[in-house]
Design a protein that fits this description.
single chain, 241 residues, alpha/beta, Purple Acid Phosphatase, chain A, domain 2, five-stranded mixed β-sheet, 7 helices
Length: 241
């Protein structure tokens, strides 16, 4: 009986992390087949340089996503900061539905806001400037017009640059801004928010205009630790994988 909805994010799948790929494929083949829906809130892949990329483990992941959607489990995806170039072809090949960067769903009677989480980190001004530029149609068309081999090389350079840039930033700069959280939840008129990105899994109790609210932060998947957020009529569970 399909009586639960699953949420995951920040798997950062890459050929260098085969253990995480195996965990994800096992989830698709077993647990997710009994779910009402699976929501992936960004950074499924560590980098994405275009829907024509065939680097491992992309082919295997596409195959198992398609098998899951074909057997009746809807899968929804919100772009992350690492794989924002996932496009229409990927959606067609997998059956995955691409959602807007902020999406509101009815989760067992409660309006719930979903997002990757990077838009909430408004104190990180250099990143937000890059995000604005890299999400423009002109920038993306320019990148995707390059030969695949050049995009692969660029992706390696980007990952290395990102690693060293993060080392220079304070942890506070890379976390969410509380005022932004309040403003966004007020804008979308929700009292529940689910996101990833920060790699700081937790459940935060909030007050918004005098009303109780909650913010759920999904975990990053690693070789030795991974978890999902499961919702049903009776509430939520954070489950290790």
């Amino acid at each position: 009986m399909r009586n639960e909805t699953l949420f995951i994010s920040d798997l950062h799948l890459t050929i260098e992390r085969p253990e995480v790929t195996r965990k994800f494929i096992h989830l698709l083949k077993v647990r997710a087949t009994q779910a009402q829906a699976l929501y992936i809130l960004g950074d499924l892949f560590d980098t994405w340089i275009g829907d024509d990329d065939f680097s491992p483990p992309i082919k295997a992941v596409k195959k198992h996503l398609k098998a899951l959607t074909d057997q009746g489990t809807p899968v929804f995806y919100i772009h992350g900061n690492r794989d924002f170039l996932i496009g229409k072809l990927f959606s067609e090949q997998t059956g995955v539905t691409l959602l807007d960067e902020y999406s509101v769903i009815d989760l067992y009677g409660t309006s719930t806001l979903l997002t990757h989480g990077d838009l909430l980190c408004t104190d990180d001004l250099p990143y937000q400037a890059f995000r604005t530029k890299s999400h423009s149609a002109k920038w993306q068309e320019n990148v995707l017009s390059k030969p695949l081999i050049l995009r692969l090389l660029y992706a390696r350079w980007y990952r290395l640059r990102s690693y060293f840039h993060k080392r220079k930033k304070s942890q506070g700069i890379m976390d969410v801004n509380q005022q932004t959280i309040t403003q966004i939840m007020q804008k979308y008129q929700t009292r529940r928010l689910i996101h990833g990105h920060t790699h700081r899994p937790a459940v935060h109790d909030l007050k918004i205009q005098g009303q109780t609210a909650q913010r759920f932060v999904l975990a990053e998947w690693k070789k030795d630790s991974a978890s999902l957020l499961s919702w049903s009529e009776s509430g939520y569970k954070v489950e290790p994988i």
